[in-house]
């Protein structure tokens, strides 16, 4: 059984050209002119792009005294309707602290529900012998990235020595360390300060998490990664200070990756000063939305390549859940939505405005993600043999975003009322059409698969090689190898 996507413009991270795409079973068989298949999928007037990969989601995550409302089923379905065919979700250890058990628990929850493919990152929320040992198990189970929270003091936050130990372990294992960069000690102090001053509303959230705290933590994480000799991935980059740290590190030759969110690119801090408490609280996430200047910095980073991917950090809490913090902003569950809107909003605000080329759009929504997370070219590429995760992207199909028509379980949408000018006409996951505009029929839950991501070998090696080649001879560049007595 073959399918052919006909009459479209194939658009990749490199180039665009008129061609048909032939699919056999779950994979791409051929890209060329006048191809024939058993079934024809119409792409006339549209682009044919690799399915979006969202590198950062929190589905059904237990967090801040509640559980994120978006399920693996609703989340993967909502994503598919927006042109995203793979999510990488954050796995959190449970009460026993075991990484292995946490991954199995995520499998237990996700496997019967997912409508498209999924991968995991693992959170490191402490440090001990068991975690050290189980990090290897995680990599063997196909989880090759570990996130460290530098904020959420008393809950998820890790200390610098713990991060250093974990980063060194990542280097040994060929895994990618990631950080949530905010100085958690200072945030906790500022939160108490705000509450003492009687500032209890969502504006207190923004005041207590200034961009300087994010920049400091980004610099600190980069220093630790440099000392450990690992690459580093900084999640949800929201501000110039963190972006600047990344630019500087990259200029030194470090492999530091930065991930702005679609929300940070398009929504700003004025949302927290909205008189409607629900409106403001629905947008409370960490880090918070910033000012327009910071948005400009993030767009510039995507253009210049100092920031590489666009994610959502989709952590969906209903209005009722948000109201847990009605008297105290520190109790508002942190998170906002975007899993379904990421591509359409980025196209409308990025490509339509001329900030990004269509090729850059594909790079930051799919191809770069696949490369950085080590699943390229199985995912993120339109080449023979790749998974047929493909979107027929219609640049002339507009809609107004609304919670009455979106596919998320949320009762609101942070992009509510926005007009987007492009949408997915068809979404294919491993060759199966799982979304067609105007049909709205959900694919079989459980048809999605977990995608194991193998350990890296090349990045860490290349980094230490750079040090040997360019470090001045008299300076001991490798802090891991300081001679005794110094
Ligand atoms: N930030 C959020 O806003 N939600 C989930 C976790 C995080 O770091
Ligand atoms: Zn501390
Ligand atoms: Zn985070
Ligand atoms: Zn997150």
Helix fraction bin:
25-40%
Number of strands: 21
Beta-strand content estimate:
15-25%
Q: Which regions contain 5 or more consecutive residues with pLDDT less than 50?
A: 468-477, 481-486
What's the mean pLDDT score? 94
Tell me the radius of gyration.
Answer: 22 Å
How many helix segments?
Answer: 15
- Ligands, deduplicated: dihydropyrimidine-2,4(1H,3H)-dione, zinc ion
**How widely separated are the two ends?**
68 Å
Main sheet properties? 7 strands, parallel
The quaternary organization reads as single chain
Strand order of the largest sheet: 8-11-12-13-14-15-16
The structural class is: alpha/beta
Approximate shape: globular
Describe this structure in words.
This protein has helices spanning 72-81, 99-110, 129-140, 160-173, 184-196, 203-207, 211-228, 240-251, 262-266, 277-282, 292-304, 319-322, 342-351, 358-372, 458-470, and strands spanning 2-6, 9-11, 16-18, 20-24, 27-32, 39-42, 47-50, 52-57, 62-63, 66-67, 84-91, 117-124, 145-149, 176-180, 232-234, 256-258, 390-394, 399-400, 419-420, 423-429, 432-436. By secondary structure, the chain is an alpha/beta fold. The strands form five sheets. It has a seven-stranded parallel sheet. A six-stranded mixed sheet has the order 3-2-7-17-20-21, covered by helices on one side. Strands 5-4-1-6 form a four-stranded mixed sheet, with no helix packed on it. The site of one zinc ion (ZN) has 4 residues, from loops.
């Amino acid at each position: 059984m073959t399918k052919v996507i006909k009459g479209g413009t194939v658009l990749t991270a490199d180039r665009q050209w008129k061609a048909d795409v032939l699919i056999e079973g779950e994979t791409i068989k051929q890209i060329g002119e006048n191809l024939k298949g058993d079934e024809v999928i119409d792409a006339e007037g549209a682009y044919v792009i690799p399915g979006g990969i969202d590198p950062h989601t929190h589905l059904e995550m237990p967090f801040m005294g509640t559980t994120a409302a978006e399920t693996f089923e609703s989340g993967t379905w909502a994503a598919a309707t927006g042109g995203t065919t793979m999510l990488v979700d954050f796995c959190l250890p449970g009460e026993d602290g075991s990484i292995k058990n946490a991954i199995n628990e995520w499998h237990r929850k996700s496997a019967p529900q997912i409508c498209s493919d999924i991968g995991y990152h693992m959170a490191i929320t402490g440090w001990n012998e068991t975690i050290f040992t189980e990090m290897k198990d995680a990599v063997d189970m196909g989880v090759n990235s570990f996130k460290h929270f530098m904020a959420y003091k008393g809950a998820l936050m890790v200390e610098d020595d713990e991060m250093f130990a974990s980063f060194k372990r990542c280097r040994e294992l060929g895994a990618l360390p990631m950080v949530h960069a905010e100085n958690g000690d200072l945030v906790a102090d500022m939160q108490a300060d705000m509450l003492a001053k009687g500032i209890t509303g969502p504006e207190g959230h923004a005041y207590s998490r200034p961009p300087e705290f994010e920049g400091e933590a980004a610099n600190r994480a980069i220093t630790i990664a440099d000392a450990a000799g690992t690459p580093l991935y900084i999640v949800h980059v929201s501000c110039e200070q963190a972006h600047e740290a990344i630019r500087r590190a990259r200029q030194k030759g470090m492999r530091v990756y930065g991930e702005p969110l679609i929300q940070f690119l398009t929504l700003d801090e004025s949302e927290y000063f909205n008189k409607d408490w629900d409106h403001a609280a629905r947008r409370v996430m960490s880090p918070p939305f910033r000012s327009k200047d910071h948005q400009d910095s993030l767009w510039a980073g995507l253009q210049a390549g100092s920031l590489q991917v666009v994610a959502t950090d989709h952590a969906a809490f209903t209005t009722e859940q948000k109201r847990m913090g009605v008297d105290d902003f520190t109790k508002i569950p942190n998170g906002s939505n975007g899993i379904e809107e990421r591509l359409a909003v980025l196209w409308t605000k990025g490509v339509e405005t001329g900030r990004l080329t269509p090729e850059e759009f594909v790079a930051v929504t799919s191809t770069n993600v696949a490369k950085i997370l080590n699943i390229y070219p199985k995912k993120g590429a339109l080449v023979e043999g790749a998974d047929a995760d493909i979107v027929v992207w219609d640049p002339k199909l507009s809609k107004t975003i609304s919670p009455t028509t979106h596919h998320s379980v949320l009762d609101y949408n942070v992009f509510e009322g926005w007009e987007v000018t492009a949408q997915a006409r068809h979404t294919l996951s491993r060759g199966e059409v799982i979304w067609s505009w105007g049909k709205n029929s959900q694919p079989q839950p459980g048809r999605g698969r977990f995608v194991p991501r193998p350990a890296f070998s090349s990045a860490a090696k290349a980094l230490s090689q750079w040090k040997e080649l360019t470090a001045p001879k008299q300076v001991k560049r490798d802090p891991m190898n300081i001679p005794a007595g110094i």
